[in-house]
Amino acid sequence: xxxxxxxxxxxxxxxxxxxxxxxxxxxxxxxxxxxxxxxxxxxxxxxxxxxxxxxxxxxxxxxxxxxxxxxxxxxxxxxxxxxxxxxxxxxxxxxxxxxxxxxxxxxxxxxxxxxxxxxxxxxxxxxxxxxxxxxxxxxxxxxxxxxxxxxxxxxxxxxxxxxxxxxxxxxxxxxxxxxxxxxxxxxxxxxxxxxxxxxxxxxxxxxxxxxxxxxxxxxxxxxxxxxxxxxxxxxxxxxxxxxxxxxxxxxxxxxxxxxxxxxxxxxxxxxxxxxxxxxxxxxxxxxxxxxxxxxxxxxxxxxxxxxxxxxxxxxxxxxxxxxxxxxxxxxxxxxxxxxxxxxxxxxxxxxxxxxxxxxxxxxxxxxxxxxxxxxxxxxxxxxxxxxxxxxxxxxxxxxxxxxxxxxx
Length: 408
Known about the structure:
Elements lengths: L10 H10 L1 H4 L24 E8 L6 H19 L3 E3 L2 E11 L4 H13 L5 E4 L3 H14 L3 E3 L16 E6 L1 H14 L4 E6 L2 H18 L2 E7 L8 H8 L5 E5 L4 H11 L5 E4 L14 H4 L3 E5 L12 H17 L7 H17 L4 H8 L3 E3 L4 E3 L6 E3 L4 E6 L4 E3 L2
Parallel strand pairs: 1-3, 1-4, 4-5, 5-6, 6-14, 7-8, 7-9, 9-10, 10-11
Antiparallel strand pairs: 2-3, 11-15, 12-13, 15-16
Helix pairs in contact: 3-12, 4-5, 6-7, 8-9, 12-13
């Protein structure tokens, strides 16, 4: 197989991110060092000397395949950070998590964000693995001026920036994913593809990005089919996407719909290749009912899967390896979607450390100075950019024997 082309112009920037990551990723090493109980920051931290982070996650409902791994990742990273505490001014603060189950309901997510911000007085919010729940939290967080780190995809989450000053997005931008996917498709000699995209803002971002990326590499997009609302049958839309026997079908959606779409496409007679965006890379997509349908499918995803001990040399790689092993030890298998929540906690810890305070406004200001290599990939936030993982963090994976394997 041919190897997809890489953009060498971004590799030096990735090296800078890796070099900058040391202090952030090593925050959990050593023994706890308690400091005096004075609080010169005037932050009025609830519950004592803590960094209190509220999370509204999809722990039940259709979004649980994405939400549950986030809770697991946050708990692992909380323990690591609390081994020493976070140096904030002349104090060391521990992390306290206030996690809520939004049941995959945007209205519940908005209610929880309001309660966490006003009653619990959290210093920051994390969550929303679906675009819909994230957008509901965005409105609350911006109005109440609470920093919010979204775990969902959808380019509109952090835009327009003038109206999203307290909002940050950790997932890759749709344009970066689509360009990597288009280069892969071209390298495989595929000339005609169909796009089966999710409903709503998430699918809208994918449709725009895929159309432009395929046009740039000269691959024909024969048709675009949108999925119905989550939970409804995908049989008819899969048949439409498979009509005319395209060489490949791009499934731009999140689990569990990604695996269900693959099954229905195979039932509709599609025998060509399948291509997934990062929202598919969770255990559910590879589960029993989906296994045969997704075997041989490709996915674009941050390079945090299949960690090799043979090439683990940098601080970021060591942190990624340790996180992966901890996750597998506790939960049996590793979810590629999980590291976003871990990175959210590390980014907030880094902002508090730099700001010398847990004041919400100062956390917001120092989040936009964070340049680091996280568990999922590289981040380079700036006053003019609050969203999107660095594009060179993305890798290409193929499903081989019911596992995500790095493609080369």
